[in-house]
Amino acid sequence: MFRQSTLKSVLIAFTLFFAAYVSLPTILGPDRMKAITGMLPSFLVPKGAIKLGLDLRGGVHVMLETDKAGLSRDLVRQLQEDVRRVLRTERVAPTGGIVAQSRGVSFRVTDAAARTRILPKIQELSVPVSNAVLGNTGQRSLEVIDLGDGLIQLVITDAELNERIRRAVDQSIEIFRRRIDPEGVKEPSIQRQGLDRIVVQVPGAQNSKEITDVLQPGKLEFRMVSEPGANPAEIETLPYTDEGGGTIQVERRVLVRGEDLTSAEPTFDQRTGEPVVSFRFNVKGAQAFAKVTTENVGKPFAIILDNKVISAPRIISPITQGQGQISGRFTVERANALSILLRSGALPASFTLVEERTVGAGLGADSIDAAVVASIVSLVAVSIFTLATYGVFGIIALVALTVNFMLLIALMALLGSTLTLPGIAGIVLTLAIAVDSNVLIYERIREEQAAGRSAISSLDSGFTRALATILDANITSFLASAILYLVGTGAVKGFAVTTSLGIATTIFTAFTLTRMMVAAWYRWFKPKSVPI
Amino acid sequence: MKLLRLVPDNTRFGFMRFRRVSFPLSALLSIVSVVTFLWLGMNVGIDFKGGTVVELQARGDRANIAQVRETASGLNLGDVEVQEFGSPREVILRVGLQEGGDAAQAQVVTKLRNAFEAAYEFRRVEVVGPRVSQELVQNGTIGVLLAIMVILVYLWFRYEWQFAVGAVIATMHDLVLTIGFYAVTQIQFDQTSIAAILTIIGYSLNDTVVVYDRVRELLRKYKKIGLHELLDLSMNSTLSRTVITSITAILALIALAIFGGDTIQGFCLAMLFGIVVGTYSSIFVAAPILIYLGVRVGEGVGAAAGNADKAINSGATK
Q1: For residue A252, what pLDDT band results from cuts at 50, 70 and 90?
Q2: What is the distance in angstroms between the Cα of A299 and the nearest Cα belonging to chain B?
Q3: A43 or B114: which leads in pLDDT
Q4: With respect to CATH, is domain B51-128 assigned 3.50.50.60?
């Protein structure tokens, strides 16, 4: 055992050197790192320090969920339109209209000849569902069921609904990115979770409201305020947020939509000085808007955002230049958020906030300070105890411990993992695991010596036997950590990462470095007995 | 230099005989845990029941708790729990799950911000909706059960079945007592508690495996000693390691609990308890139970394991 091959020693030394090199940016911090960077050619400078979790650096974490019911309602409405169009072109009138259901539509065509004529056309509405990952899934978007008695039902398939949700979430992620970080400086992390959720993390943000404000759908519509005596089927009542609230009746018909905006900027109204959002239409929008305002001079129209009427100004004169402004008793922040919303386009679905965790930068800094103090105190306590128990072998254990710590940091930096507060607790616990491996070895050596073996023989069998136990014991702990990683979320995952990596580095140091150091100690002193 | 020797070299404690005390003691503690859990329940945090937690720091010298309580109860948010937290400047507000689902839930923070933003800094805000909290409960339960099962299977392959069963009984013992600890102390039970429980399970098993390793080794070595005596010998020869390792872990955790800040204090206290219980259960539950599970000297050691032992011996004498 103690005649270790040179190649092995070189490999171990190389690993340690590499680990020290990789952990440099984390240990030194960005400022001191920069001082060194100046002296070295850039390809020699290690990159990638361990990232701090939101609980340590402060920031906002929110989880949003797609409104699936709303999305499927939209799909049903669209399907209703599609069916209506087909029937109209074929000049077939369904008995009792086209009835919307929770996941599809149904209609009745009593005339058998007309039914056979339209059925193939209706079938054409069902298209193959294709998927960005798998390509063609082999499934179709609709199921057409002939219920007999002239009744035909169209059901939106699960494949289609899921694909729509997936697409809506993907588009929304892109839109969120533009809205949250228009200047590209905040390093937000915006990721899909599962099928229908999005996790948004913005480091450094202090108030979740600045985030949730821009997560609104942002669906802008211009419609007319309904006049007395209008057909009740063509109007609807919406909440009114201007002039003291209440509700207001508007026409269902949409004159111009937010898609037709080319720009939106926060400005101030020149007369009142109130914050407003000024906008400009594209050609199509400008023409439609000019037509409406010319025909309706003197009448009020409604500016509707996400199904709430934010203002209902009267048309004073035709607006033909395709520009205008939206007022609605905004604060400066609100006008700013609204213009970002309008610029980035409407979300294809609406979202509900299902989880929020915000940590102020002050608390984060306090947590780091506390964690650093706690780590140092525990390190000192463990060091004193180890030295008192094992003397010179205690020093070897502490060197192994330090190397362990460095390897752990290097691994985390290489894997790009995030350090959280529970993660720091995990590191401190790793300390105990690492010391345990040395304890197992030393106690075994002590026993072997007590059984009457010579120094070299005790060392040898002490290592061999203890290593088997170390392996067995750590594999069970590793399994527990690995499962924690699989089921845990957020900060807890950080704990699982540090403990499982810590177990791996512990096994490595116990098998290589500790052994090497003990061997070197023996060769140097050639003791008759082991002082343990 | 005189080295610290916590366990004298020739310690001969009668661990097996002590089971007449330790088994009833464990049974009693387990019953107390279950009863307290059923009677008091746990102080379940918003991770698992949903709701809102807000930590405020007064912009002035100290927080006016009475005033915060009054303002909060006027916000129409149902029961609001207001407590001093850490220092006199800090207050923690706990608001229950709102009726009206996730949307109503998201409004709570807005209302609180409007009410307190002027006089208090919002240090931490956590909102967990009803569905997310249900999922977290599910994931946590699945995680703990999965961990126990996977480890059971591993030990079963690695040792004989009696050892796997013994280890699982000892682990369940630790699990029950830890849950009892949460019920008795009313320390908040949240996501990090699941991490604590899994770590306690990991630590306790680690300890049990070290003891079992020695039992297996001695079973192969001495074919003539009775099981009772052999188990005692195993416990005593690993006792020094057991004590030293526990003390190291306990030292590290005490430092974390005192200096690590309020956020991880509960976590550290639970771990401290778990390490004491885990160490106790390896010696006084996991080992003595082997007597009842029918491990016999000279049996229960596979041929392959015997060969491995030979290999270790020959390796040692080189």
Answers
A1: confident
A2: 35
A3: B114
A4: no
